[in-house]
Amino acid sequence: MNLKRRRDAQQWVLDHMVKTTGRVQNFASDARQLPPSVKSYAMISKIVGQHGLREEAIARAADASGHRATAVHAYAKAILSYIEAQHSIFEDDNPEKIYWYSRALDCHARVRELADHPIERVEVPWDGRSFPGMLHLQADRKKQPTIIFIPGMDGTKESSGVGPLGGTFMAHGVHVFTFDGPGQGESNLRKLRITHDNYERAVSAAIDYLLKRPEVDPERLGIVGSSFGSLWGLRAAARDSRIKALAVVAVCFGDKRGIFEHASPRFKQVFMYMAGIQDEEAFDRMAEQMTSFGCGAEIRCPTLICSGEFDPLTRLDETLAMFDEIAGPKELWVFENQAHDYRGLPNLCEIDTLHFMIDWVLDAMEGKISKSHKRITLVPPSGGAGPYEDRPLFAPWQQPRSPTDRQI
Q1: For 197-276, where are the E strands, in sequence order?
Q2: Of 130, 139, 336, 381, which has the fewest Cβ atoms less than 10 A away?
């Protein structure tokens, strides 16, 4: 038997989870991401890609009929299907992966022509090469607050968080930039690989580019990151003082055993591909260095951390330790009884967490958060006013002995 990774032997378990949950990871979530016709991991690219072809056919027909809004919506659905189809293939120069991604790019090119706001595809110079990004601008193109969105592990500029059309960001009156960093999306197709520390350098390159744009206010430049983007966002903020505010969610910045040894085997399979590393021991050595611990003293911008109480990728005690490390103004929201997710949470009445995070970042950039700010609140799954309400973070059997004791 020739296994590249120890956890490849669990493929049968992953196939079962795909069939029964409609997911390839983060199995605590109840929401299916794959159609019921997908019965195993190997079926994902074909079946989801076929969904994309049908969605694109509808988009093209609506487009030809002059039905712009319908066409844009259908193109956006096709893009998300194509991105999901190519995600399941972790092999260089694979013709199927390249085909599905090319379909997504073609659809997005048409979305940019039809969208209500300017969307620019750009190339950011970096380390003698370049990586692609998408800049979504408010329709008036005036100088505005700008947010860089950093997606999770293998998220892409066309899908995760920002989506094909700017997602929730456009509703908040900000410009938003997202990109395929090393190991992600098109950058990975170009064999621009992730290392333990090059993503945060790519973030700084993106800032270099953005600050040359007349639409970007350098005093109101923030970052929002999800999942692995929480690690990269924290490390970027520690090294680049041009970042004025930071908010991260569904965190993954601690010990990497959670993601690579305990969670879905897909995480390690895909990340080794993103890194271009075939030797598992060499990858494990790299993964040990992928932590934000030790950089908190250099983070001086206002920082919001949003974490599920039972997130399997970063334990709550790790989140509290990282929170303590951060030198600047800081706030922590713990979503009670939640895991590694930020969409459709009952804790926020199923309102996208990004809405609240963007508001917080904008408040921080407007100077509404004091330099001494430090706040932790528990956000329950029912009752109350969400993160706007103060709730103590401790269990009934762990009442603090004094007001200065850490709440856990």
Answers
A1: 216-226, 245-249
A2: 139
DSSP 54-109: HHHHHHHHHHHTT-HHHHHHHHHHHHHHHHHHHHT---TT-HHHHHHHHHHHHHHH
| Model confidence pLDDT, tens digit, residues 174-203 | 999 999 999 999 999 999 999 999 999 999
pTM of the model: 0.94
Rounded CA separation 275/267 (Å) = 12
For residues 378 and 97, give the distance between their C-alpha atoms in angstroms, rounded to a whole number.
42
Residue 303 main-chain phi, psi, to 5 deg: -135, 130
Torsion of CA 317, 318, 319, 321, to 10 degrees: 90
Residue type, 176: V
Residue 30: per-residue pLDDT:
85
Can you point out the beta strands (E) in 250-400? 303-308, 330-335, 374-379
In the chain the domains, ranked by start, together with CATH numbers, are 8-114 (1.20.58), 117-398 (3.40.50.1820)
With tokens 């800049």, the residue in question is 135
Burial of 136 per CB tally in 10 Å (0-12, 13-18, 19+):
buried
Dihedral (C-alpha) 358, 124, 239, 286: value to the nearest 10 degrees? 100
Report d(CA 365, CA 347) in Å as an integer: 26
